[in-house]
C-alpha cells in the first residue's frame, strides 16, 4: 500500500452534501462526504479487487482539514477513479470510548478501516449466504485488515455514472391501499424459497420470491413485510461447530442504505427493484422491517466497524464512563433523537422510498425512537472523548448498560444542547425523530408501524406517539388474549378476547412486560409429533380457530410465513440463528395443503375482503356490534367460566355476519340472532373435517356436496341454532329467507 494516490487520480475540495459517495456528472469525479465531529484527521481508503481479496488497501488519501472540512463534515472529490475500486475511511483518533479515554488509541493510529454509514453496496468477498470470507489471507499481519473469514475487510462499492438505460419501473406508483384494508404476510426473503421444494431458479433470493408471488396473491395477501434486508453479517456468531450459529433473521444492521447482497442472485439493487415492481403489479405492497435501534457493533467491547470509529458519542447512547446503554438488548442503542442521527435515519428512509418504491416501514423496538439522546461536549482536541451532559447530575436514567450496573461518578460540566433537557434514555412526550418521520413530505404516504416497546422496559402499546394517526402498532395484547381464551385457560379471559376482537381502545395492561416471557402454547394433550388422530384433529381445529380470530378481528392482520400451511418450529420460539428447515417454508406442505388449512385461510381472507364491517378504521363500538352468548338474548359469560364468545355485525351488501368461538371442553348449541326476512348460512366451521369446514364450491368441494351439507343442516337453520364442537369456531352469513322472499 502507498500513501500516495494513483497518477491517474487528482483530488478536489469536494462538497459536504450529499453524505456518502456520489457521482458528479459534470467533472467525472466521485464526491466523498462523511460526518465526524470526533476526528482530527480523515483518510480515504481505496482498494482494488485484487488487493481487497488479500485484505489489503491500495491507496490512502488524506483529507486536508482546512480545504476538505466544512463544520463536522469531511469531504473530498476524486477524479479518475476506476469504477471497480472499493472504498472506506480511516480516522484519527479511532476506537471505542474506553480506548480513547485510556490513551491507548494513539498506540494504533488509524487501525480500523471504517465502512461508510451511507454505503449503498457493501463488498466483503462473500457472494453466497453463509459463505466464509477469504481464508488464505494473513489476518493479523501488518497491513492486513479484517479479523478473519467471518469478518473480512468490508468496504463499499463506488457509485457509477448514470446508466444509459436506467431501471424501467414501467410507470410503477405507490398502491396507496388504506391501512385498514391490508393483510400483511411477514416474510424472510431467504427462508421463503431456500427449501429445495420451492423449485425456483435461485432459492433464497429476491428473484426467488418473485417466482412465488402468485401464491401470495391467490391466498389473498396484499402486503408483505420483509424481515431485515439491509446488509448484515450472518456469520457474526459463527464458530464453524454448529449449523445453528448464523444470524439468520438479520436484526444486526451493518449498513442501513445497502441491500443484503447475499439475498441476490445477481445485482442486488436491480433484483430488489424487480421484486417491488412485481409485487405492485399483483396489488401487493412492500413494507420493510427496519432496525434503527442498534447496529452490528455491539457493546463497548464489540467490533469497531463504522459508526463507533467515526463518532462514537454521536451515534450511540453512552453513559458518562463510555458504556453503551442497552435498551435494545443487543449491546448498544442508537442515539436516535440526536439531530445528526435523526437526519441519518430520515435519509435512509427516503432512500428506500425514492429509489426502491417501498410502501412502508415496521420499526423494530420502536420505543427506542422515543427516548432522549445522550449529548456531549467535545472540547477542542478532545477527539472521541468529551464530557457527557448527564455527568454533572450523575444520574443513571434507568439505563441498562452492558458493562456496569450504574454510571461512574460525575466528572464534568453539564452541557445543554438540542434535546438535552432530559436525562439520557428518558421517554420523550414529543420525540423529535417521530415527529420528523411523521411530517416528512417524502414519507407522507408511507405506512408506519411501531413495535411499541423495547428491552429497557418501556412499553407503549396503545400509547405510542401517533401524530394524527400516522402510526400503527404491533398489538401483543391481542396475541396473548386470543391464545389464553382459545386454549381454554383457567380464568376470566372472555372479556379480554372480546376486546381484542373489536379493537378495544383500552390501555395495554402489559404491566411493563414485553409479552415474550409466556407463550401460552398448548399441544392439545401430547408433546411433539403425534399419531393420535384425536390430538391431531384438535391441533388442526385450533390452528383454524387462531386463524379465524386473527383474520376476523378489527385491525390489520399479519400472518407469519408458513402460518397458512401449519409450518411448525417444533416448539422453538426464537429461531433467529437457524438457517435450516426450522425457518424455511416447505413448499410441499404449502402446495399439497393436505390438512386444508391454507384453503381455510383463503376463505377467511375472501370473507374479510367481502365484508367492509370487518375492516373498520378504528375501534368498533356502539350498537352495530352485538355480543352473544349461547342462550338467545344473553351476552357471553364474562366471568371465570366464560368459554363462549360470539358477535354479530349488521347487514351489508355481502350480508350480515355471525362469528362464534367455543373454547369450552364440551359441545354447545348456540342460538342465532333472529333477523327479519333472513336466515343464517354456515360459511365456515372449524369443527367440521376438511373439506367440509369451508362450504364453498371449489376444487376441493363440488356444488352438489355443498348443497347436500346445507340440506342436512336445514333443520338446525330453521330452528335458529348452531351446533358447535368443543374448541371450534364458526362463521355464518345472513341470506334472504327463500320461504319469505319467494
From TrEMBL:
The entry's keywords: Chloroplast, Plastid, Transit peptide
SMART domains assigned: Aamy
Location of the Glycosyl hydrolase family 13 catalytic domain: 186-608
Pfam families linked: Alpha-amylase, CBM_48, ISOA1-3_C
Composition-biased stretches (Low complexity): 394-404
Start and end residues of each stretch annotated as Disordered: 379-431
GO terms (BP aspect): carbohydrate metabolic process
Subcellular location: Plastid, Chloroplast
Record GO terms (molecular function): isoamylase activity
Cellular component, GO, one term: chloroplast
Similarity-based family: Belongs to the glycosyl hydrolase 13 family.
Protein name per UniProt: Isoamylase 1, chloroplastic
Amino acid at each position: 500500500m502507498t500513501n500516495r494516490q494513483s497518477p491517474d487520480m487528482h483530488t478536489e475540495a469536494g462538497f459536504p452534501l450529499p453524505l456518502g459517495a456520489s457521482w458528479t456528472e459534470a467533472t467525472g469525479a466521485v464526491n466523498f462526504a462523511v460526518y465526524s465531529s470526533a476526528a482530527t484527521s480523515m483518510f480515504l481508503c481505496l482498494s482494488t479487487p485484487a488487493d481487497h481479496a488479500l485484505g489489503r488497501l491500495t491507496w490512502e488519501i488524506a483529507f486536508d482539514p482546512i480545504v476538505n472540512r466544512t463544520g463536522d463534515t469531511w469531504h473530498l472529490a476524486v477524479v479518475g477513479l476506476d469504477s471497480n475500486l472499493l472504498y472506506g475511511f480511516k480516522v484519527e483518533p479511532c476506537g471505542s470510548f474506553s480506548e480513547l479515554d485510556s490513551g491507548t488509541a494513539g498506540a494504533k493510529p488509524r487501525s480500523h478501516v471504517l465502512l461508510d454509514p451511507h454505503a449503498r453496496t457493501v463488498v466483503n468477498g462473500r457472494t453466497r449466504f453463509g459463505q466464509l470470507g477469504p481464508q488464505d489471507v494473513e489476518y493479523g499481519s501488518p497491513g492486513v485488515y479484517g479479523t478473519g473469514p467471518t469478518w473480512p475487510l468490508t468496504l463499499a462499492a463506488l457509485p457509477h455514472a448514470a446508466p444509459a438505460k436506467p431501471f424501467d419501473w414501467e410507470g410503477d406508483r405507490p398502491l396507496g391501499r388504506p391501512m385498514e384494508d391490508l393483510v400483511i404476510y411477514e416474510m424472510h426473503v431467504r427462508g421463503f424459497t431456500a427449501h429445495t421444494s420451492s423449485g425456483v431458479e435461485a432459492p433464497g433470493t429476491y428473484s426467488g420470491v418473485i417466482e412465488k408471488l402468485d401464491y401470495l396473491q391467490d391466498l389473498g395477501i396484499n402486503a408483505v413485510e420483509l424481515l431485515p434486508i439491509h446488509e448484515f453479517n450472518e456469520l457474526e456468531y459463527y464458530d464453524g461447530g454448529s449449523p445453528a450459529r448464523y444470524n439468520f433473521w438479520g436484526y444486526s444492521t451493518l449498513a442501513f442504505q445497502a441491500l443484503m447482497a447475499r439475498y441476490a442472485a445477481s445485482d442486488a439493487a436491480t433484483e430488489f427493484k424487480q421484486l417491488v415492481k412485481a409485487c405492485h403489479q399483483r396489488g401487493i405492497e412492500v413494507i420493510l422491517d427496519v432496525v434503527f435501534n442498534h447496529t452490528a457493533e455491539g457493546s463497548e467491547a464489540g467490533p469497531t466497524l463504522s459508526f463507533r470509529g467515526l463518532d462514537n458519542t454521536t451515534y450511540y447512547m453512552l453513559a458518562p464512563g463510555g458504556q453503551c446503554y442497552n435498551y435494545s438488548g443487543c449491546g448498544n442503542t442508537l442515539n436516535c433523537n440526536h439531530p445528526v442521527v435523526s437526519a441519518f435515519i430520515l435519509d435512509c428512509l427516503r432512500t428506500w422510498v425514492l429509489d426502491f418504491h417501498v410502501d412502508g416501514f415496521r420499526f423494530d423496538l420502536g420505543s427506542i425512537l422515543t427516548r432522549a439522546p445522550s449529548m456531549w461536549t467535545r472540547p477542542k482536541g478532545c477527539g472521541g472523548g468529551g464530557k457527557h451532559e448527564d455527568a454533572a447530575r450523575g444520574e443513571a436514567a434507568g439505563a441498562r448498560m452492558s458493562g456496569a450496573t450504574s454510571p461512574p461518578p460525575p466528572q464534568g460540566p453539564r452541557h445543554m444542547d438540542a434535546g438535552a433537557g432530559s436525562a439520557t434514555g428518558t421517554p420523550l412526550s414529543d420525540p423529535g425523530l417521530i415527529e420528523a418521520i411523521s411530517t416528512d413530505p417524502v414519507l407522507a404516504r408511507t405506512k408506519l408501524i411501531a413495535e411499541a416497546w423495547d428491552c429497557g422496559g418501556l412499553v407503549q402499546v396503545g400509547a405510542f406517539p401517533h401524530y394524527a394517526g400516522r402510526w400503527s402498532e404491533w398489538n401483543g395484547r391481542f396475541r396473548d388474549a386470543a391464545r389464553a381464551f382459545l386454549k381454554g385457560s383457567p380464568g376470566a379471559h372472555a372479556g379480554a378476547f372480546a376486546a381484542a376482537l373489536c379493537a378495544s381502545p383500552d390501555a395495554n395492561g402489559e404491566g411493563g412486560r414485553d409479552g415474550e416471557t409466556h407463550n401460552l402454547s398448548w399441544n392439545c394433550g401430547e408433546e411433539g409429533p403425534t399419531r393420535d388422530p384425536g390430538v391431531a384433529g384438535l391441533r388442526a381445529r385450533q390452528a383454524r380457530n387462531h386463524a379465524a380470530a386473527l383474520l376476523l378481528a378489527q385491525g390489520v392482520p399479519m400472518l407469519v410465513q408458513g402460518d397458512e400451511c401449519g409450518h411448525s418450529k417444533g416448539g422453538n420460539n426464537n429461531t433467529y440463528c437457524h438457517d435450516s428447515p426450522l425457518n424455511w417454508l416447505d413448499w410441499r406442505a404449502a402446495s399439497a395443503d393436505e390438512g386444508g388449512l391454507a384453503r381455510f385461510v383463503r376463505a377467511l381472507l375472501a370473507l374479510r375482503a367481502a365484508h367492509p364491517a370487518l375492516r373498520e378504521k378504528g375501534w368498533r363500538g356502539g350498537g352495530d356490534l352485538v355480543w352473544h352468548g349461547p342462550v338467545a338474548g344473553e351476552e357471553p359469560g364474562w366471568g371465570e367460566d366464560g368459554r363462549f364468545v360470539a358477535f354479530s355485525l349488521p347487514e351489508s351488501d355481502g350480508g350480515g355476519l355471525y362469528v362464534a368461538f367455543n373454547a369450552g371442553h364440551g359441545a354447545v348449541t348456540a342460538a342465532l340472532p333472529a333477523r327479519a326476512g333472513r336466515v343464517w348460512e354456515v360459511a365456515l366451521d372449524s369443527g367440521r373435517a376438511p373439506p367440509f369446514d369451508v362450504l364453498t364450491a371449489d376444487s376441493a368441494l363440488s356444488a352438489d356436496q355443498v348443497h347436500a351439507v346445507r340440506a342436512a343442516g336445514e333443520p338446525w337453520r330453521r330452528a335458529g341454532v348452531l351446533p358447535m364442537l368443543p374448541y371450534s369456531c364458526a362463521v355464518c352469513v345472513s341470506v334472504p329467507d327463500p320461504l319469505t322472499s319467494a
